[in-house]
Amino acid sequence: MRSVSAVEATIWSPDRADVSELLRNSEMAIVGLITRGSNGTFLVTLSQADAEAGLGVWKPRRGETPLWDFPAGTLYKREYAAYLVSRALGWPNIPPTVIRDGPYGIGALQLFIDAHPDSHYFTFGNAHPLESRQIAVFDVLVNNADRKAGHCLEGSDGRIWVIDHGLTFSAEPKLRTVIWDFHGQPIPQELTQDLAQLDAELDDELGFQLNDLLASDEISTLRERLRQLLATPRFPEPGPYRCVPWPTI
Question: CB pairs under 8 A, 24+ apart, for 119-124?
């Protein structure tokens, strides 16, 4: 199969029925390093003999920077776990993500999203109140330690997308986010209804999938956070620990 440049590749729609299959089975070639961030993240082309080439974002386990507060070599699993939870909830929009082998070994491959390059949460958050609340609730649920404004994308399709979920699901409180706009407010009922459904799904297929990705104490504290959100459906107040990531964008 001939090599394909990023210019020749198309941007696959995340709504394609076969997008996960394409991510898993396409031939992957590195275009270049995405320099923002502390972990090795690559723009890649994805090609198959019978399909138009696409673009993806590749995060191999070998590119992960060791951290004192997250087990080594687990960030790619957390990326996929966050995608599975978002898919079960129906929000927020996380680009289709798979775990597979590729350059430098195993890692997480995510569909590249065509987004406005200068947009981020601080530029569009007020214009998308429902999506902003969805992201805020999701980050509480998955205990996101790194919700920067730049991790929120305004897609060319008009949808809001969120990326970079490697620092999630810790069993210790670590919520660090720029989205504190709603602190103390009630969580909308439509979101708590989805959370209640998620509680049931954790006892079904989703729970089995997470067992292969997260430690047992991380799954049990995920359940605790979920049930706390259902028992007291309010957005939390900033805690006494560092609660905003650096940099914020």
Answer: 119/153, 119/154, 120/149, 120/150, 120/152, 120/153, 120/154, 120/249, 121/149, 121/150, 121/151, 121/152, 121/178, 121/179, 122/149, 122/178, 122/249, 123/154, 124/152, 124/154, 124/160
Selection from 117, 39, 24, 47 nearest residue 73 by Cα? 39
**167 three-state secondary structure:** coil
Q: What is the pLDDT of residues 175-205, one digit of tens each?
A: 999 999 999 999 999 999 999 999 999 999 9
DSSP summary character for residue 62: G
Residues contacting residue 149 through CB under 8 Å, at least 6 positions apart: 120, 121, 122, 125, 178, 248, 249
Copy the structure tokens of residue 9: 């590749």
- Centre a 10 Å sphere on the Cβ of residue 184 and count the other Cβ atoms it contains: 9
- Is 147 in contact with 176 (CB distance < 8 Å)? yes
Q: Does pTM surpass 0.85?
A: yes
